[in-house]
Amino acid sequence: MATIKLSSGHLMPLVGFGCWKVDNATAADQIYNAIKAGYRLFDGAEDYGNEKEVGDGLKRAIDEGLVKREELFVTSKLWNNFHDPKNVETALNRTLSDLKLEYVDLFLIHFPIAFKFVPLEEKYPPGFYCGDGNNFHYEDVPLLDTWKALEKLVQAGKIKSIGISNFPGALIYDLVRGASIKPAVLQIEHHPYLQQPKLIEYVQKQGIAVTGYSSFGPQSFLELNQNRALNTPTLFEHDTIKSISTRLNKTPAQVLLRWATQRNIAVIPKSNNPARLAQNLDVTSFDLSEADFEAISALDINLRFNDPWDWDNIPIFV
Where are the domains of the chain? Predict the structure, then answer.
């Protein structure tokens, strides 16, 4: 399996299984079946609300001898309500308990946003809840303070690598100047409609690996009934993508995933379908041409589907 060597020294698979929107009722079976299909990277988060079920699937596979724990690469993410240093380990311990693991391979700050703390017993995961109905409340916690708390948990052996998610370049530029442990991974929304080439060039030069989520663009957001997604042509049916897939005898999904992995960007698609599981994993056995890359580059319209400005006018990407 193709991997990326992280700055922490650990190897991260180039293709993984994304746990966002994996239904709780089927999550354990989906994770188990993905392991049987060959997946070793599982990308989850506290906010996804399915870590217990994901943990059930991981444990079943380990207990049955399908895979050893050290062969898995499990990612989770610190949610916004737990940025205060005194709450970071509390949140991580809940994740470890839910996943039934002694450590996670990668733990990311999910967003560079500090919501007001919500006790686990009050609501978990809290989502957008900040202890006051539908009203947003924030805490004055600098990102470096949260990062320093994560560094301590690496030293404690509870996390192998730490990283960031949904961070713009300016915040990364600032964070690396105060960090004792450099971020190992940046996870970002990444598809032909939102390519972010300057950001990717900068972080890769810094030795920070990139994971792209929502590789299929609007497809990832249709079930959320998001207007931008509903009104944007699907990449699966785009003439450019279809033309390349036909010529290479690959699915549009495989083309979109190879467009990322060929540039050493990890991907985390998900599927319930055994055939698509296998197809999504098989995206390093062929190459796109330079002309293909040029054609896909022309599709960039800086269209972002996951934007905290939609939540409460939070200006991360403006």
Answer: 3-307
By annotation, the residues acting in catalysis are 48
294: amino acid identity, one letter:
E
Cα 288 from Cα 93, distance rounded (Å): 42
CATH 1.20.140.10 fits 3-307, yes or no: no
DSSP SS3 for 138: strand
The answer to whether 110 is a known ligand-binding residue is: yes
pLDDT digits (tens, 9 = 90+) for 74-129: 999 999 999 999 999 999 999 999 999 999 999 999 999 999 999 999 999 999 99
> What residue type is assigned to position 17 of the chain?
F
Separation CA 138–CA 195 (nearest Å)? 30
Helices 197-205 & 169-178 angle (0-180, nearest 10): 10
First and final C-alpha spacing in the chain = 38
Tell me how long the chain is.
318
Q: State how far the Cα of 254 lies from the Cα of 30, in Å rounded to an integer.
A: 20
Report field, pTM of the whole predicted structure over 0.90: yes
- 187 forms beta bridges with 165, 211
pLDDT tens-digit map of 29-63: 999 999 999 999 999 999 999 999 999 999 999 99
Say if residue 281's pLDDT is above 90.
Answer: yes
Strand 185-189 relative to strand 159-165, pairing: parallel
Contacts of 165 (CB under 8 A, 6+ apart): 77, 108, 109, 110, 111, 186, 187, 188
HSE (side-chain half, CA atoms, 13 Å) at 17:
31
For the cut 90, the answer to whether the pLDDT of residue 272 exceeds it is no
Q: CB of 141 within 8 A of CB of 197?
A: no
